[in-house]
Amino acid sequence: MLAGGMLLLQDRIALGAIGQPKSLAAAIDEDNDMQVATIEVSAAGFTPANTDFEAKKMIKVVVDVKPRAGTGLKLVSQNLNVDADLKEGENIFLLSNPQPGTYDIAIPSKNFNGTLTVKAAH
Predict the structure, then answer these.
(1) 3-state SS assignment for residue 91
(2) CA separation (Å) from 68 to 13, 24, 30, 82?
(3) CA 54 to chain centre
(4) Count of C-beta atoms within a 10 Å radius of residue 65
């Protein structure tokens, strides 16, 4: 019975979020001298909810919208001046010379919220 209920409510239950990291550090792409991070958008929201970066190194953020996330999505960040329509699949954003701080990202129509945290370079 529980399995049947989960099948019926699979679009509403955030099963994919169980065991997923809440925060993740960006990978370094040495060849292109930039930090790269992928943020998945699913019916459960952003995974990870926070991504860490280092200041003063170019950032490439890949927002990967999964099929069940919905349509008509828009990524908004007031403190990054971003207001962009998202398509299913990979959406790429580049940030040059990021300054230390925490930057909010959101998909208001789904009430999804996340952050990009830029830490001072070592």
Answers:
(1) strand
(2) 12, 23, 33, 23
(3) 17
(4) 21
Strand, helix or coil at 11?
A: coil
Q: What values do phi and psi take at 42, rounded to 5?
A: -130, -175
- Short-list 97, 53, 91, 60, CA closest to 75: 91
Locate all alpha helices (DSSP H) within the chain, ordered by sequence.
2-8
Q: Using one digit for the tens of pLDDT, what is the confidence trace for 9-44?
A: 444 444 444 455 577 888 888 888 899 999 999 999
Contacts of residue 6, defined as CB under 8 A and 6 or more positions apart, other chains included, come to 13, 15
Q: pTM of the predicted model, to two decimals?
A: 0.80
The amino acid present at 3, given as its one-letter code, is A
Here the tokens at position 88 are: 């299913």
